[in-house]
Specification:
two-stranded antiparallel ribbon, 226 residues, globular
Length: 226
C-alpha cells in the first residue's frame, strides 16, 4: 500500500522544483497575454510585449509570479490587507531591481516612469505598486490554488519530461535574447567586434528585427571615457 501511495504522488507535489518551474513558465505566458490586452485597451493597437525572442513569453512576469508565491505561500491565510501590502512591496522592489539590472547589464531600459506621480527613480511608481498589491491578492488567494491543482494533475512521466524540455527551451531562449540585446547595444556604441558570435548575432538579430520584438526598449548612450 505504501508503494502504491508513493506512485500516486504528483511530480509537482507541494512546492518543489517542478512546481516552481511551471509557475514561472505559466507566469511568463500570462504576463505576455496581460500586457498585450493592456496595450490593446489603452493604446488601441497590437504591440509585441514579449521579453524573449522566441514565443509569447515575458520572463519578468514569470519571475515575479514565482517570487511573490515563494514569499507569500506561508502567509496565504493572512488577512487580505496584509497580503496586499506585502505584495505591493515585493512587486515594487522586484520591478525596481529588474529595471536596474537591465540598465546595468544591457545599457537599455524598457519602462520609464519619471513623468508619473510618486515614482522612484523612474523605475516604479505608486500606481503600479497598487496594481502589484491587487494582483498579489488575486494570485495568492484565487489563481495559485487552482493552478497548483491543475499542474499536479499532469501525468508524472509527461510532466517530468515536458518540464525539462521547456526548461532547456527557456534557458536557451533567454540566453540568445540576452546576447542579441547586448550585441545591439554594442553596435549602437560602435563596438564593432568581429568574432564569430558577434557576426552571427549581427546577421540574424538585426536592429529592425529586435525593434519589432522590443518596441519600447531604448538604448542608453555610452558616456565618453566608458
Amino acid at each position: 500500500m505504501a508503494e502504491r501511495s508513493k506512485e500516486r504522488k504528483s511530480f509537482a507535489e507541494d512546492m518543489n522544483f517542478y512546481k516552481f518551474f511551471w509557475i514561472f513558465f505559466i507566469g511568463c505566458f500570462a504576463g505576455f497575454v496581460g500586457e498585450t490586452i493592456w496595450c490593446l485597451a489603452t493604446l488601441y493597437h497590437f504591440e509585441s510585449r514579449a521579453g524573449v525572442i522566441y514565443g509569447p513569453f515575458n520572463p519578468v512576469y514569470g519571475f515575479g509570479a514565482l517570487i511573490v508565491i515563494i514569499c507569500m505561500y506561508k502567509l496565504r491565510y493572512m488577512h487580505d490587507l496584509w497580503i496586499f501590502l506585502c505584495s505591493m512591496i515585493i512587486g515594487s522592489v522586484f520591478e525596481y531591481m529588474c529595471s536596474l539590472f537591465q540598465e546595468l547589464t544591457f545599457s537599455t531600459i524598457s519602462w520609464e516612469y519619471s513623468n508619473t506621480q510618486l515614482n522612484l527613480h523612474g523605475r516604479t511608481n505608486i500606481m503600479f505598486a497598487f496594481m502589484w498589491g491587487v494582483l498579489g491578492i488575486i494570485w495568492v488567494k484565487d489563481v495559485f490554488p487552482c493552478l497548483s491543482r491543475l499542474i499536479e494533475k499532469i501525468p508524472n512521466r509527461i510532466g517530468v519530461v515536458l518540464t525539462w524540455i521547456l526548461l532547456i527551451f527557456m534557458l536557451l531562449n533567454m540566453g540568445i535574447s540576452a546576447l542579441a540585446v547586448k550585441r545591439q547595444t554594442d553596435r549602437k556604441n560602435n563596438m564593432n567586434n568581429i568574432d564569430v558570435v558577434s557576426q552571427f548575432l549581427d546577421k540574424y538579430f538585426t536592429d529592425d528585427f529586435l525593434a519589432k520584438i522590443y518596441p519600447n526598449m531604448t538604448t542608453i548612450p555610452k558616456k565618453d571615457g566608458e
